[in-house]
Amino acid sequence: MSTSTPEHITITRPDDWHLHLRDGAMMASVLPHTARQFGRAIVMPNLKPPVTLTSQAIAYRQRIVAAIPEGVAFEPLMTLYLTNNTAPDEIRRAKDSGIVHGIKLYPAGATTNSDAGVSDLDHCTKTLEAMQEVGMPLLLHGEVTDPSIDLFDREAVFIESVLIPLRRDMPALKIVFEHITTSEAAAYVTQSGGPIAATITAHHLLYNRNEIFKGGIRPHYYCLPVLKREQHRLALLKAATSGSPQFFLGTDSAPHPKGLKEHACGCAGCYTALHAMELYAQAFDTVGALGQLEQFASISGPTFYQLPRNTGTITLRRSSWTVPAELAVADTTVVPLNAGETLPWKLE
Ligand SMILES: NC(=O)N[C@@H](CC(=O)O)C(=O)O
Ligand SMILES: [Zn+2]
Ligand SMILES: [Zn+2]
C-alpha cells in the first residue's frame, strides 16, 4: 500500500503505457525525461516510415536502449504499426520476439504520421484473428476519420461504428482504447466487460477545450483526440481515480519542434514527458484521490499487459516549481505543456 499524505506521496515506480519517443537525436534528447519518472513505456510506432515489422521494432528498440542514460533502469516496450497489409505471420513473429507488446491501429489520416494506417478494418480480419489467438493486444487510436463527422464527435462515433462491431466479431481480442477523451469512452470501457482497458493522459484529466482558446489560440494545448468539454474531463477523472483496473496511465507525450506547433497548420501533440507524474498528481489531488494514483500509474497497466510490477518507488512532494519556457532538444526546440507555469507537485 502506498503512503499518502497531503504533502508527499510514495508509490511503486510507474509506467507510461502510451508514449512517442520519435527517433535519432530527438529520441535521445527526450528519453531521459521519461526514464527519470517511469520504469517502462509502450513506445508508439508512428515514425516516418512507421515501424511495421518485428525486425524494425528490434532495431528501434536497440537505438532506444543505446540512448538510456548511464545508471538508469528503463525498459522500452515495443509496438508495431498495423497497415492494410500486415501479415498474420508478422503477428506470430512479433509475439515470438518477446519485445513487441501491442499492435497499433491508426485509422488512416486520423493523427500525426497515420497516412500508412488502416483504411478499413476489413482488410485486417486474418491479422486480428492471429492477434486474438496469440494474445497480442490491439492498441487503438479511437477516432473515425470521416470529414463529415464533427471533430469533437469522432471518438464517440468510433465506438459505435468500429469498436462495437469489432468486439462482437472478436470478443477475446485484447484491446487498449488509447488516450480516451469522452464520457462515452469511459462509460463504454466500464460497462462492456471483456479484455478491454483504456489509457488516459494527464492533460485530458486537467483541461477542457477552453484551454486551447484562453486569451488567444494556444497551439501547445492542441492534441488528438482534441480536448473536450468539462463534462468529459470530469468523467475521465472519475474513471482514472475509480481504482478500476481498466484505466491506466498513458501520457501520449508527443514532442514536435516548436516551429511546427506554432504554425499556420500546427501539429497535434502535447509534450508532457518532462513533468508527467507531477501533472497526474495535480489532477488526482484536485479530487482528493492521491491514494488511487498508484493503482492507476503502477498497478493496472502491468496487470493488463501481464507484466510484473516495477520494484522501485518514486516520491512526489507538494513543492511548487516552474516549467521551463522551452527545451533545447536535438537541433531544435520543444515547448513543453505548461511552459512558464508554476506547478504544485514535484518529483523528487
Ligand atoms: N496525440 C497527438 O496529438 N499526436 C501524436 C499521435 C497520436 O497519439 O495520435 C503524435 O505522434 O504526435
Ligand atoms: Zn493517437
Ligand atoms: Zn499518441
UniProtKB/TrEMBL annotation:
Transmembrane segments: none annotated. The active site is at residue 252. Substrate binds at residues 20-22, 46, 141, 224, 256, 268. PROSITE patterns: DIHYDROOROTASE_1, DIHYDROOROTASE_2. Its cofactor is Zn(2+). Keywords: Hydrolase, Metal-binding, Pyrimidine biosynthesis, Zinc. It catalyses: (S)-dihydroorotate + H2O = N-carbamoyl-L-aspartate + H(+). Binds 2 Zn(2+) ions per subunit. The modification N6-carboxylysine is found at residue 104. It comes from the Bacteria. InterPro entries: Amidohydro-rel (IPR006680), DHOdimr (IPR004721), Dihydroorotase_CS (IPR002195), Metal_Hydrolase (IPR032466). Its EC number is 3.5.2.3. Zn(2+) 1 binds at residues 18, 20, 104, 252. Residues 16-315 form the Amidohydrolase-related domain. Zn(2+) 2 binds at residues 104, 141, 179. Pathway: Pyrimidine metabolism; UMP biosynthesis via de novo pathway; (S)-dihydroorotate from bicarbonate: step 3/3. Catalyzes the reversible cyclization of carbamoyl aspartate to dihydroorotate. NCBIfam families: pyrC_dimer. Homodimer. Belongs to the metallo-dependent hydrolases superfamily. DHOase family. Class II DHOase subfamily. This is Dihydroorotase.
